[in-house]
Design goal:
CATH class of the largest domain in chain A: Alpha Beta
CATH topology of chain B: Rossmann fold
Largest sheet of chain A: 6 strands, parallel
CATH topology of the largest domain in chain A: Rossmann fold
Number of helices of chain B: 5
Strand order of the largest sheet of chain B: 1-12-7-4-2-3
Oligomer: heterodimer
CATH superfamily of the largest domain in chain A: NagB/RpiA/CoA transferase-like
CATH superfamily of chain B: NagB/RpiA/CoA transferase-like
CATH architecture of the largest domain in chain A: 3-Layer(aba) Sandwich
Largest interface: A-B, 95 and 75 residues
Distance between the termini of chain A: 37 Å
Bound molecules: iron/sulfur cluster
Number of helices of chain A: 23
Structural class of chain A: alpha/beta
Helix content of chain A: 40-55%
Radius of gyration of chain B: 21 Å
CATH architecture of chain B: 3-Layer(aba) Sandwich
Number of strands of chain A: 12
Number of domains of chain A: 2
Strand order of the largest sheet of chain A: 1-10-7-4-2-3
Radius of gyration of chain A: 23 Å
Distance between the termini of chain B: 59 Å
Shape of chain B: globular
Helix content of chain B: 10-25%
Number of domains of chain B: 1
Number of strands of chain B: 12
Chain lengths: ~500, ~200
């Protein structure tokens, strides 16, 4: 993948061009609504779902709050089981470690399992510069890589491409793709199977991530669908896993929560087709040399943020993307990062800090604070709370600069003196945060908002394609954002009212 | 990069100066009542993934395996598979040789009824991980007393020190317009034989 997100325009500009792309919007709307439906059904089957969410959040919080101890235990367990542990402060260090291992073994080709962490550090680009080819083996990643494109969704990264486009990419870029390749998904998948089989059989080194790393036992886990993960984790001699430091869980038993939460939230299945676990080196079975790179790259910065650190609970299921009205209409690319959607709107600024990059600073505003992401999140990340907090951090950072004599044009159409401008919004956001933290309060307020919505509906009468009522541009600080996007009018029925009417099954 | 290790740990400790105390993890989900008929539910849920399920008595298992293998000409098994399979190759194959094999027969460690999952821990009868991965058809024989209700029961039974493969249906992808397609890299056909121990 030679494309990168570097130099992306800020969210409102990127969103505006994405909105104009009707193919993208059509594909995305179909994808997100399909996954939403599947998820709702399988989540509805689990009577203890809410308790599992609470357990997931509690396990992650307890771990994050003693992260140093858990990482040291993980390091010890891994080492005892014959793996080599490396620590990387940032992307450059992590990439150098992986490339160093390849070079040490004279390897110029590696196979890869889809991994957010390696995308985050842009490992493939770095390896390419070193003359090492990295083959993405996940079908969607392969489509993205061959199309010289960017992923647009955590779970289905090529969701912005339809079957006809994929056939064209394969015909043009996949060595040995049959001339009479059809655009039937089964045929396209079979072509990818053939193309990659030889690579799997001959590869000497694989690079993976891990969904979870168990401190007690040194067990790593990869959750997948296609079997490319199993191939990479089993056939090569050398395995390097790049693992964010927040992926650690204390004990094996804790996985009984996450293996219920993740597949149902993610693909909307009771269980994903394949999950692999391995604990160091197993003589005679699988890779005999194993490395684990523990990656910081901004995670300790996020951890230092009292309110924001909950974003590190994220298990990358992508449920928040699929329920997000902003994501559904703009797509993943507008977020300018491998982490799009609601999680991207909070995680990117937390990992990289605010006040120095317009693109990053615009992300906490890429939300209408509707809270659907919180309802969907299996580890109960309180998005409205974190978004509001980050908005105030952005404002504070710019106020600091304004005081040093820098005029800031970030949030408003015209330059404003930031000492004054953010106040009304900050107050509104505080109120929203207060309301959203308490279910009872939220319920009462939503009924109020529903009433206001019914009133507005009579006044406004503007509708979007498909008949959905929308508001025009918002005044004040929201204006920049709403000129690129129609804000849904407050629904006449609140989410909770709808939930109860539907029997609470989603 | 030992400097990196110390620096990351130090940043974590600084970041956590104000960390709140531990909270209690609710574990009530572990005691939810089990479904009435585990084997029936397992059968239904495995079938839901478009895998095939055969239920048989111990005396009929050899025949059940034979019919699950269908027209597969080259079959590989781990040397310690407790069921005889006519003409099966022993696993002393390279990865490319394995690629020329049509089917594999294994046992399993645990079955999970609620999710329709079989778990291999690559112990006796199951072979190394590549064995049940490269051939295109996987026939997996599981005893009914190995089937547990849910994920927590399976986690409690399994030994994390062993490599594990959790399998729920055949290899699949939904990467192209979210159409679920069976089979990208793993076995495209999964046949589970549930043996009644009587
Ligand atoms: S933030 Fe929550 S919903 Fe979003 S990807 Fe992470 S775990 Fe899933």
């Amino acid at each position: 993948m030679s494309a990168t997100f570097v130099g992306m325009p800020a969210f409102p500009d990127a969103a505006r061009s994405a909105l104009a792309d009707s193919q993208l919007r059509g594909n995305l709307a179909h994808a997100t609504s399909t996954i939403r439906g599947k998820r709702a059904q399988v989540v509805g089957e689990v009577s203890e779902w809410e308790e599992l969410r609470l357990a997931g959040a509690a396990i992650k919080d307890n771990t994050l709050h003693h992260l140093d101890e858990h990482l040291l235990r993980l390091e010890r367990s891994l080492t005892e089981r014959g793996a080599t542990v490396h620590w990387a402060r940032d992307a450059a260090e992590a990439c150098a470690i992986v490339a160093g291992i390849a070079q040490q073994h004279g390897v110029d080709e590696v196979v890869k399992v889809k991994s957010m962490a390696t995308q985050e550090i842009e490992l493939n680009e770095f390896l390419a510069e070193q003359g090492i080819a990295a083959w993405e083996t996940d079908l969607a990643e392969l489509i993205v890589q061959l199309g010289d494109d960017l992923p647009s969704h955590i779970l289905v990264p090529a969701i912005h491409r339809n079957r006809a486009e994929i056939r064209e990419i394969f015909r043009a870029k996949m060595p040995g793709a049959p001339d009479d390749l059809t655009d039937n998904p089964a045929d396209l998948a079979a072509a990818a199977r053939l193309h990659l089989r030889q690579k799997f059989l001959s590869a000497r080194m694989a690079v993976s991530g891990a969904n979870f790393a168990v401190a007690d036992t040194g067990t790593l886990m990869v959750v997948e669908s296609e079997g490319n993960g199993r191939m990479c984790l089993t056939l090569p001699d050398i395995l390097v896993s790049v693992v964010g430091i927040e992926k650690v869980v204390p004990s094996w038993d804790d996985l009984d929560v996450f293996l219920q939460l993740l597949p149902r939230s993610s693909t909307g299945e009771r269980m994903n087709p394949y999950t692999s676990t391995w604990t160091g080196v197993t003589p005679g079975d699988g890779p005999q040399e194993m490395h684990v790179v523990l990656l910081d790259n901004g995670r300790t910065r996020a951890l230092a943020d009292e309110v924001g650190r909950q974003a590190l609970r994220c298990i990358r299921c992508s449920a928040c993307l699929n329920v997000c009205p902003v994501y559904e209409r703009t797509g993943g690319h507008a977020y300018g990062s491998v982490y799009p959607g609601p999680i991207g709107a909070i995680l990117n600024p937390l990992l990289r800090g605010v006040g120095h990059d317009k693109q990053l600073d615009s992300l906490p505003y890429a939300s209408s604070l509707c809270g659907a992401c919180f309802e969907a999140c299996p580890v109960r990340i309180d998005f409205p709370e974190v978004l509001v907090h980050l908005r105030s951090k952005v404002v504070d950072a710019h106020r600091g600069r304004a005081e040093r004599g820098v005029r800031c044009t970030l949030r408003a159409e015209r330059p404003v003196r930031l000492g004054r401008a953010p106040k009304p919004e900050a107050v509104a956001m505080k109120a929203a945060s207060w309301a959203l933290r308490d279910a009872g309060r939220l319920g009462r307020l939503e009924r109020l908002a529903g009433a206001a919505g019914r009133l507005l509906a009579r006044v406004l009468r503007r509708s979007a394609p498909g008949g959905r009522r929308v508001l025009g541009s918002l005044p004040g600080p929201g204006a920049r954002w709403t000129t690129a996007r129609d804000v849904p009018a407050p629904p006449t029925e609140s989410f909770r009212e709808w939930w109860q009417r539907e029997g609470g099954r989603s | 990069m030992s400097g990196a290790r110390e620096e990351i740990l130090a940043s974590i400790r600084t970041a956590l100066r104000d960390a709140p105390p531990e909270v209690e993890v609710p574990r009530g989900y572990r005691s939810s009542p089990p479904p009435a008929d585990l084997v029936a539910l397992f059968d239904e849920r495995v079938t839901d993934y478009r895998a095939t399920v055969t239920r048989c008595a111990l005396v009929d298992v050899v025949e059940a395996i034979r019919s699950a293998l269908g027209d597969a000409a080259r079959v590989v098994v781990s040397g310690d598979l407790p069921y005889p399979v006519d003409g099966a190759l022993d696993d002393d194959l390279s990865a490319s040789e394995l690629d020329a094999v049509d089917a594999v027969v294994t046992t399993a460690a645990v079955g999970i009824a609620v999710t329709g999952t079989i778990v291999l821990d690559h112990g006796p009868g199951q072979g190394r991980r590549a064995l049940s991965l490269v051939p295109d058809r996987h026939v997996c024989v599981i005893r009914d007393d190995q089937i547990v209700a849910g994920v927590p029961d399976a986690i409690a039974r399994l030994d994390p020190a062993r490599p594990q493969t959790w399998i729920s249906g055949p290899s699949a992808t939904s990467d192209i317009e979210l159409d679920r397609v069976e089979g990208v890299h793993g076995p495209r056909q999964l046949h589970v034989v549930v043996v009644r121990e009587d």
